[in-house]
Amino acid sequence: MALHLPAIVTLLALLLFIYSFLAVGMARKKYGVAAPATTGHAAFEVVYRVQMNTLEQLVLFLPALWLFSEYVSPLWAGLLGLVWLVGRVLYSVSYVQAPKSRGPGFMISFMTALVLMIGACVGIVLRIMAGL
């Protein structure tokens, strides 16, 4: 199971992103914001920013997740990935309810991705030093 956890987390992260772009599509219709516009009703802009910030975070998170999994531990990568997902969901819900409350969710997901990235760097350096 531990070896599969990063893959499961990856699929869950992708499902979260799919949900975010479906939410943008529904918000476009609800608030009358025709594509390709990215501004309009404030509630639409919040949903759009959730999608874009999630995309921005995925670019950092996914490679860090898999590098950490390979060079440190798939179990710990998966567990940290689950924390990242909780942070992203908290960010999304908080931002939509009250944009100024998005900070904790953002910090949870960003710091988790940073831990994965730094851990991967350490793991890579240790393997290089060990001649592997």
What would your notes on this structure say?
- By secondary structure, the chain is mainly α.
- It has one domain: Four Helix Bundle (Hemerythrin (Met), subunit A) (Up-down Bundle).
- The protein contains four helices and no strands.
- Helix 1 runs parallel beside helix 3.
- It is elongated and about 60 Å long.
- The two termini are 26 Å apart.
- The relative contact order is 0.15.
- The model has no long low-confidence stretch (mean pLDDT 97).
Q: Quick check: average pLDDT?
A: 97
Gyration radius, in Å: 17 Å
The poorly predicted ranges are none
CATH topology: the name is Four Helix Bundle (Hemerythrin (Met), subunit A)
CATH class: Mainly Alpha
Total individual domains: 1
Structural class: mainly alpha
Strand content: under 5%
Euclidean distance between termini CA atoms: 26 Å
The ordered H/E elements are: HHHH
Beta strand count: 0
Shape: elongated
CATH homologous superfamily label:
Membrane associated eicosanoid/glutathione metabolism-like domain
Question: Residue share in helices?
Answer: over 70%
The CATH level-2 architecture is identified as Up-down Bundle
- Total number of helices: 4
Biggest beta-sheet profile: none
